[in-house]
Amino acid sequence: MKPFDRRAFLSIGAGGVASGIVRPTISGVSANAAQPDRDRTPFRIPENDSIWDLHCHLSGVTGKTAEQRAEQLLEYADRMHVERLIFFMGYPFSQTPEPAEFRRQNDQVLTVLERWPDRLLGFAYVNASYPEESLAEVERCIQDGPMLGVKLWVGGRCDNEDIDPLIRRCGELNALVFQHTFFKVTGNLPGESTPDDIAQLATRHPDVPLICGHTGGDWTLGIRSIRQFPNVSVGIGGSDPAAGFVEMAVRELGPERVLYGSDIGGRSFASQLAKVYGAQISDEHRNLVLGENLRRMLKPIMDRKGMQQ
Ligand SMILES: [Zn+2]
């Protein structure tokens, strides 16, 4: 593989904010144009890389229907050689959805899973403030439906013991538990979990696969918070593509606990893949992060459902 060239990588575009970056200078001339000629061979995703995206949404993208939105995102995914995409949450964007709303948004995702069964996978959107209704949604969407995990968002913090039955049920079904987490310097939303909350959850459920979404935003703290809990992996999607992020996660957690995801349409495939392709890690570790880990974690539930990887 050629040395990574960030400008060339971003220039191939991904339908998001990362494409087409021009850096202005005082003189008004693009800094890109002012730079001396370098190797401008465009970066291409290596053909043998098998990329599965942990973290995709139907919001942040245009389209009148869920299908139109997914179709547009699949066009970007094809451009970036992303094979499979896990969707959770529908639209419109909502911070504290009531049961009728998260059921309706799960129906939107179920529609696109049915249309593209070979490409799209799904997690059930639930709200920790409604533990009973959320558990019912696990039965409907995972036990009786095609979904493979749950997405817990900012409706209630995950250190709340009311969600223990839901987490236990996910464990029985081999379903993955994805929890959005953030350490915000401006203060979290009332129901917004931190990586410390997911660490609390992990002490009560050491055998259920938990995923610390966004690695806590501030990944230098997030990685430390969950480091001692081997059943907690980090999702690297949806934060800025800072140098050193993936390197630290791989070093401190081991490469098996780091999962690529984009958070598209809130982010671009290009900016989030750049975190992995720009990282100073071995090819073997990169392949784990890009898809092998996710396939390993999903294999038990996909086998139970007779789904092919
Ligand atoms: Zn997200």
UniProtKB/TrEMBL annotation:
Keywords for this protein: Hydrolase, Lyase
Every Amidohydrolase-related domain range: 98-298
Record has Nucleus as a keyword: no
Cross-referenced Gene3D superfamilies: Metal-dependent hydrolases (3.20.20.140)
Pfam family, one: Amidohydro_2
Gene Ontology terms describing biological process: secondary metabolic process
PROSITE patterns: TAT
GO molecular function (one): hydrolase activity
The keyword DNA damage is assigned to this record: no
InterPro entries: ACMSD, Amidohydro-rel, Metal_Hydrolase, TAT_signal
GO cellular component terms, A-Z: cytoplasm
Listed name of the protein: Amidohydrolase
